[in-house]
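SAMPLE LOG
Freezer: B-3
Tube label: C17
Construct: single chain, 555 aa
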Amino acid sequence: MAIRLLTALLLIWVGLSTAALAQGAAGMTPSGNGRDSLRPAMIITPGEIELGVLSPGDDAKAIFYVKNAGSGKQSVTVTGPEGWTPTGNQNLPATVGEDPEIFRVHLIYAKEVGQGKNRSCSMILRLEAAGQTAAFRRDVPAGDLREAIRIASPDGSQTVVFHARLAELPSAPRLDAEPIRIDFGTVRAGESITKRILVKNRGRESLKWKVGVAGTKGMPAMAPPPVGRYVSFRHETAVAGASTLAGQIRDGLELSGTWTEEGGYPSGQSEQNTLRYRFTGTGIRLYFWKSPDSGPFTVFIDEQFVDIIDGSSDRRERAEALIAEALADGPHLLTIVNGGGKVTLEGVHLFGKPIQRGPRGWVTAFPDSGVTNRETDYINVALNTRHLMPGIYGEHILFISNGGEADIQMFLDVAMETQPKYLDVHRYLAGYDYFYTSNPQVEAARIQVKGYRYTGIAFRLFAPGTPGTTDFFRWFNPLKGDHYYSYDPKGGKPLPGYLFEGSIGNIGTSRLTGAKELYRWFNPTTNGHFYTTDQSGEGITKKGYRFDGIAGFVR
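STRUCTURE (predicted):
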């Protein structure tokens, strides 16, 4: 009996030891503190990208995010699909950590190649991350294109699949004009302004077209003035491929979260991305794009829930939604919160003010006719506001061609001459914090609560919309007790702990007539910033401040 008991105990001990060894060999430490529990792992979102339908000359852009779910950072290498020929860098190295790194995909349908049954599609693929680019080319058949981008790390590799449907050009010419709505912004009577319309041919045969203002010679009879004022969300100074758009990118429009640009328009794919737009009127209509990778987003007016709009579609297409009507005529706030899928926003139509028509000849389009094949033609639309009274103006620019027609609506706000061209910037001081504002009446409560002492007018900024200027933004760090100012939406340098407070006016990015430098000074002891047009700093060096560069140009 003793021998049997000893044998049984021995078998149990051997079984437990073997299981422990097997668990150790497999690296199974789900709740322990071993190194394997900290092994990095990539998380890629989304895993599949829909680029829609593309014809020759079209292109499509998308982004995906890669982050390290483990601790620290790790290096990854992105390579193009198999069978694609590199035209530049073959690999795209990057470093990912806990914060998602943005990777960009740009697919270009360059042209059709070959004839008849041998016709194929010449494609270019560009991948970009952290300021580096890799490019590839391949000729593929028309139809469904489904390829995999490989992301390799020391722990293995994963893929992101992109899908597009490649269409051949129809034989008949087809007119494609962009944009279909133009926002000329706000100008003063007497100023001239020009914008461009792009014309493309989506067919094989030559496209013959002419363009002009509705009702002028050779154009159809005058259509009624457009209803409502169109405001574009396009960021005119956005750089293609810029990693983020953030802060107050134009008057009344503020973005928070991780927004990128798509053709200059704000585009986001992260949950809780928020767009806020302050407007005045009795109603508002929203313009946006639907696409296969788009999702729902929530709309609020004056902080009250309005609707959840589904942005998904089996192809990329323009869409619009009436958000509110019959509002009280006055200031309102539009808020859009992203639900997780992609959302790309074009702009809004505002209702409540009458739209006027200008005198004959105030709008000129040139050239007024042409022939377009595979190239892109540019038509200039010039406005002469010399004889316009203050108000909002709208007009129709019409295209007539052998490949269809197009109606481009354009809008302009002519400001009253009483609107100031320059804004006095008042300086206040509390402790080491220098506070600058162009509207002390609106910020009176803040000034009083913080105990700021008025020290006078420091300089003058330009009014919004002044050519050659851009927003001058303000940030505040409550721990350091310091305000910081810059025309760079991201501050021009890391600003940990600083809270964005919006624009206080417009500043020149180059020397304008009558403008002068605005100098920035920094105190490394107090972490305070000081701004002045005095080259000597108004004696601020005696308080430990050092010269920190030119912030821009002011009056």
